[in-house]
Amino acid sequence: MSKSLLCPCEDVTSSEVEHAISKGFCDIESVKRFTGFGTGMCQGKQCLNAVARLLEEKSPKKPTPAQLMPFTPRPPLFPTEYGYWASASFDPERAPSGGVPAGIELGPDSLRPAGPVKSKAKIVIIGGGIMGLALAWNLTEQGETDVVVIEKGYLCAGASGRNGGGIRAQWGTPTLISLAQRSIELMKRFARDMSINVWFRQGGYLFLAKSDEVVKKIERGAALHNQHGVPTQIITADAAREIVPQLTMKGVRAAAWNPKDAVIFPWPFMWGYAQQAQKRGVQVETFTDVKGFELSSGKITKVITDRGEIACETVVLAAGAWSPEIAKLAGVHLPNEPHRHEICSSEPLKPFLGPLVSVLDSGLYFSQSMRGEIVGGMGDPREGAALNLGSTSRFLTRYSQALTEQLPQTGRVKILRQWSGPYDVTPDNSPILGKTPKLENLLQMSGFVGHGFMMAPAVAERMAKWMATGESDELFERFTLSRFAEGRMEREDMIIG
């Protein structure tokens, strides 16, 4: 019975759901992200009730109605072909609407754990995304285990669980190139080190350029990459078609190709860090909201949550696009702005697409997961700053038109689900790291635009060492919040999506 199939679309068995419950995932949304159930063709329509029954039977405590509340299926409600959306029209001058809401709005007490948070910790990390969890684990590598991670929702609820999983060393500055190279090294051995499969696939990145301006951009980038040991090549459109024969290369003049770039599956990457950190004593408090801070003599002395206060020595703000609103509670202004970026996934196809492909002129990107889905997105120049996680038909139309222009055979392929996540955008497209002026025990770790996921392993490794040893590190001197007041920018322009 333990091997019975609960989700035929994604081959999720009852034993896998029971394993998720044993790990502490005792609500529908968290189990979905731990097992992948409900993300296939039926959008959970066939398996949701069976998983809810198993939660009722196997959870250590009887789940509340809110914990068993069905998640909102991602639009489109029924699988719909790319060709259908590509034939639709949209107003290119009109700003995107809010779209279909991201999910069911739960009440404030719906999933909050019983009991208070611990009353004292050496380090409190605010944000249970990839940055916060990677930092927590790396701190344990430095011998620091008195750490609490506070997450407002479930693990994978924010941007870290909503991205395409791409990892590339093709960047526009030596610092980000170096960080990405180190991250790729760490991701290669992540499954061995963390005992969890993240489906690492080193298929490369293929950047396509249509305009003279973008061709010059990738040529400058390749020269810089080669100086730092990244084997990027500038190739012709015909040579790019040899790498992916299905591409039309319509309008493409040249391409940048690095076969060592990669893609991984985001969810287990976060679980790996969380579980290994917890084994070493780190407390990860989900469904816990930061309400304020207690300040004294230019320092944070307590973090105030809806589950009690935590006295602490150091606070790290790693909440991504949510960081500015939390920083305000301490009287700190961050210049970060949240910008919605939408993404979607297709039905599974036979493997045919090796690299992640991106048309730099439009921001289109797409890759094929190891389960066979085409996963991709495309930025919208009309998207204004707002913390909006809705999904729009406008995106499906723009994305489908751009995708089918390069891959016409996808016109008959069905879109299974669509979602969005926030880019955490700073004025210079570079992160904010290190100490906060006039509040030095508040450490910043945000502002990574759309590339925090791929930079997290390397950045967290260095930040943990810097915090534990006090050794100088230029990363936490150059990218400080104070640079904006000083008029000192660290510009990065290789942003896609």
Helix-strand blueprint:
Elements: E1 5-7, E2 12-13, H1 14-22, H2 28-35, H3 48-58, E3 80-81, H4 82-86, E4 120-126, H5 130-141, E5 147-150, E6 166-167, H6 174-188, H7 190-194, E7 205-209, H8 212-227, E8 233-235, H9 237-243, E9 254-258, E10 262-263, H10 266-279, E11 283-285, E12 290-296, E13 299-305, E14 308-317, H11 323-328, E15 337-346, E16 356-359, E17 364-368, E18 374-377, H12 393-406, E19 414-425, E20 432-436, E21 439-446, H13 452-469, H14 475-478, H15 482-485
Parallel strand pairs: 4-5, 4-14, 5-11, 7-16, 14-21
Antiparallel strand pairs: 1-2, 3-19, 6-10, 7-9, 8-9, 12-13, 13-14, 15-18, 15-19, 16-17, 17-18, 20-21
Supply the key terms.
497 residues, alpha+beta, Arc Repressor Mutant, subunit A, FAD/NAD(P)-binding domain, 9-stranded mixed beta sheet
Report on this model:
The protein is 30% helix and 22% strand. The longest helix has 18 residues, at 452-469. The two termini are 44 Å apart. Helix 5 (130-141) packs parallel to helix 10 and helix 6 (174-188) crosses helix 13. The model has no long low-confidence stretch (mean pLDDT 93). The chain contains 15 helices and 21 strands. Among the domains are: 5-71, Orthogonal Bundle (Arc Repressor Mutant, subunit A); 106-165 and 181-200 and 265-336 and 426-486, FAD/NAD(P)-binding domain, CATH 3.50.50.
